[in-house]
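Task card 7
Instruction: Convert sequence to structure tokens.
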Amino acid sequence: MRRWSTRNVSPTADDGGTPVRTAVADLLAILYDEGVSHLFVNPGMHTAPLREALADAEAAGVPHPQPILCVHEHVALCAAHGHYLAGGRTQAVMVHVENGTLNLGGAAGNAQRDRVPVTLFCGGGAECRQLLEALSAAASEPEPGLLSGVSKWAVDLSRGGELGALTRRAVQIARAEPMGLTHVALPMDLLGQPAGASWRRLPPPRTPAPDLGALEEMAELLTTAEAPVIVAGRVGRQTESVHHLARLADALAAPVVDFRNHVNMPPQHPLNVALDCRELLDRADAILLLDVDLPCLPGLGPLPAQAWLLQIDTDCLKADLPGWAAPIEIAVTADTQLALPALLTLLTDRLTARRRKVDDRRKRVERVARGIRDAWRDRAASAHPADRADAVMAELQRWLPEGTVIVEEAAPGVGSTLRQLERPAGQHLRAIPRTPGWCLGAALGAGLARPAQPVVAICDDTAFAASLPSAAFWTAHRGGAPFLTVVLDQPGRRPAPSDSGADVVTLARAAGAEALVVDEASEIAEALEQLLTTTRDGVCAVLDVRLPASEDETVRPSLRRSSLTSRSTQTKRQPA
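Output:
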């Protein structure tokens, strides 16, 4: 039996003629054809054929994804996550053998929950399974079972199947709504074998159009509502939807609770109240939920029992969220980019006869919203220690260069970023990950997706340490994607309670970054200028912002639980 070389091209074919194209070269060609611009690789023995194929493609001038070497799997997947948020492209990650998937930690769950289209490749086959014999039973679960709880689809090629066809299939499923993570267990011995038949791209199914009958019912309820409220989650992942949401809010005169997982609504819009919405929510009798995962979002508190809950989402059931039991009255499975214009058309005709009521509501809501914004400005100008985070964010908004991309992991003072940062659509990428440590890897990926724009990460000290700064900065420096990290450092949350700020600075400098500490908002401008110059010179930088202890922000926001599911709807108002 012939033993195939693991090199990209075998020396000759059996007839001594044309070199044989191998499966690994085919894999690179497929990924490039699918729009993958960067391949995030955590190297191991199974990647040797990949490295040779990349070198041969580079020498021959063949287009291929740019390899990004990552020294930790968690950073690799977080970088792919951030790259998608900033660039909108399909992602691919290759990690070491099966136990390498364990190092992904919560990054896999974060990517799946945030609907990131990423295909994960890991080593597989007999040579890898031998390494698992000494591991615990939990670690030696057969692939792809280790990620079965957080992936849409998985396949193990060591059990048969054609690499080209199944890779195309994995990418297709990852891109299909609701998007998410797919997983391919890839044995090393397969990579050096001859490539199979070529497979053309498999486009995902078209995004579902909204059911017009359901939208008409929804429009009737919203038209008769006295105090409608809109809650926006991931609407802004398609920037065109930001305009549609603003028009819908204007037509209804409805305030928008904007969590800004993306910029869902122009921050300066008079109906955008961010999270300072308790008064408006308490009065609401109809709440429209747009791309929202309510059990995962902090700060809402209980929704009023009398309100009708209406939902538009590509995934209304949330089957992978065990705690989701929301009493939704009308749920429409659709892309909000398609559904919002249709809903607006249906509302426009119905609201014509109720124009006076809508105008009165607009005056009332805008009056409340002006009071909220006046309070935001007061906090930005306040010298009170509890308002320091707002003052710092106001200074960042003032001094950050135009075009700066902000990557935020929800942190203490999370409300301060929503109150004070006013970034255009596509320039504020925010996540409330189920597992902390997302931010630095995501900023690395965003920098690779938008190399011409400065990238600033914002997180707390816990998320900074959990993001593996040494691994993230190492890759950022070698990948040409340095970024600035602003750490909101609050006493009582770091492991050593003694020297305020010392842990963040020591860790940052040990990881190869330049670091400064500021205690007051007035110091932000000078520190920003110095550290942004550092990033332009190719070195990552960290700004440690010391915040005073705050009793109402000592609990990590991602651990606060919405009480939506504990409320009933027995007292709902009947539609007119």
